[in-house]
Every structure is written in structure tokens, then in C-alpha cells.
Amino acid sequence: MIKQEIEDSVAYLQNKGFNAPEIGIVLGTGLGNLANEIENPIEAHYNHIPFFPLATVEFHSGKLIYGTLEGKTVVVMQGRFHMYEGYDLQDVTYPIRVMHKLGIKKLFISNAAGAINLNFKKGDIMLLEDHINLLGGSPLAFKGVSQFGERFVDMGNPYDTEMSNAIKNIAKKENITMHSGVYAAVLGPQLETKAEYRMLKIIGADAVGMSTVPEVIVANHLKLPIVAVSVLTDECDPDNLETADIKEIIKIASETEPKMIKLFRELLKTL
């Protein structure tokens, strides 16, 4: 990855009218409908943006959308990238660097995840307060990373306390069940075995998914404040494990999505 590639991506988007967005939003699996609520939208499909990866997952639509939401200028990723698609960690996080270069000052992230904590139920939402990186690599482990920021990034508090507290208060006010917990990122695309679910619980994970952590690491590298939520789509109880059904996971994500949209919209009002 070189700076010129990012600058070329940014120049293309600026020419389309992506002018100094304030907030970046990454929408996870089954969670793309917030993009439909953007006012005066300008769209850029990933396959048209220079040096952008392409979304290969059928339920990720693959475009950046710029516009206004709750009076704030936003740029929304409708469809994200994953290592299980064959991308490396620099590819996965490339859009975060582009959105930062466009001018975003804060980042919202959503994902669909499985509940490891058996007190959490499918259809609930979990606020990420910490994470465990089980992807086997770092998006900062490449030659020349220091030209983008400090190589050795502190990760003692990766999620922004102020936005996290604000979204907790919003959830309470709106009667939305929202837990706080630790998200474990795994490679996938296969789901976990019973033994792996037991391991994840032992090491302190409350939820498991296949995304988010690379983006959070890069956002911290860029000193970009983040808030992140998981929509919990299945319950990962190794003693009573149901056969994984991706259609059911997408269905639960879609049914829970209005709560996530409400949280993000209300949070935007506070910024």
C-alpha cells in the first residue's frame, strides 16, 4: 500500500462530490439499510473507485454512499471486506484510510456476531468495549507503515469512551437491550466448532465474528475515535448447538437492524 493509491481513491471520490464528510459508518452483514436513509445521496460503487477492493459476499452490496444524516455529512460503507474473501489485512482496512483522508473525524462500525456469553440472546445488541484479535495478523504489519502513523499503536482503550457512554444512554432511553462485551475476531468463513466456542468463552469473549478488529486497529493508528456495535444473530452454546443457517443469521440481523439504525441516528444527534 502506498500513499499515492489512497490519494487517487480520494481524488476520484472528491470529484464525485464526497466533500469533507464528518462521520464514517461501516455497515455489517445484513445491516445495509441505514444507507437508504441518507439524504441527497451520492454513490460510488467499489469497482469504480481506483485501487478499492471488491465485495465478493452476496449480501454485501459494495458501494460508498455520501450524504446527510441527522444534519451530519456522512460517508457509509454499504458492504465491507473480509480476510475470508482472500483479501489481506491492508485490503480490508483500505477504505478506513480513504475515509480518513476524505476528512472523517469519527467512525461508527456495525457487525453481525454470534453470542458466546449465554446471558446474551439473538436479537440483542452488544456494544464493543474491547476485543481479541484471532485473525493471525495485523493491518499495521507492513513495510512503510510509519509513513501513515506511529508503528507501535497503544490499544489499551480502542473504543471511544465518550461515544460509548452516549450510545449506552441512548439504548436505555429507547428501551433497547444493549450489552457491553468483548468481541473476538476469527478468520472464518466456516463457523466455529463446539470446542472453539468453549475456548472463546474461556479466553473472555462475549461475541464472535469475522470482521471489525482490523478496521478498529487502523482507526486507532489514525487516531480516529470509534464506536462499534454487534447485532447478535445466533447463540453459540456448545452444549445445545443448533446447525448454523446463514439465511437465519441474515434474517435475525435484518429484524434487529432497526434498533441499530435508531442507536446510530440518535448518536449522530449528540455529536
CATH topology: Rossmann fold
**Strand content range:** 15-25%
Number of helices: 6
Secondary structure category = alpha/beta
N-to-C SSE string, H for helix and E for strand:
HEEEEHEEHEHEHEH
Highest-level CATH class? Alpha Beta
How far apart the termini lie comes to: 32 Å
Number of domains: 1
Question: How many strand units?
Answer: 9
* Share of helix, binned: 25-40%
- Residue stretches low in confidence (pLDDT < 50, at least 5 long) are none
Mean pLDDT reading: 94
Q: Per CATH, which architecture?
A: 3-Layer(aba) Sandwich
What is the topology, as strand order, of the major beta sheet? 5-8-7-6-9
Q: Radius of gyration over alpha carbons?
A: 17 Å
Characterize the overall form: globular
| Main sheet properties | 5 strands, mixed, barrel
> What's the CATH superfamily, by name?
Nucleoside phosphorylase domain
GO biological process, one term: nucleoside metabolic process
Pathway: Purine metabolism; purine nucleoside salvage
Function: The purine nucleoside phosphorylases catalyze the phosphorolytic breakdown of the N-glycosidic bond in the beta-(deoxy)ribonucleoside molecules, with the formation of the corresponding free purine bases and pentose-1-phosphate.
Keywords: Glycosyltransferase, Transferase
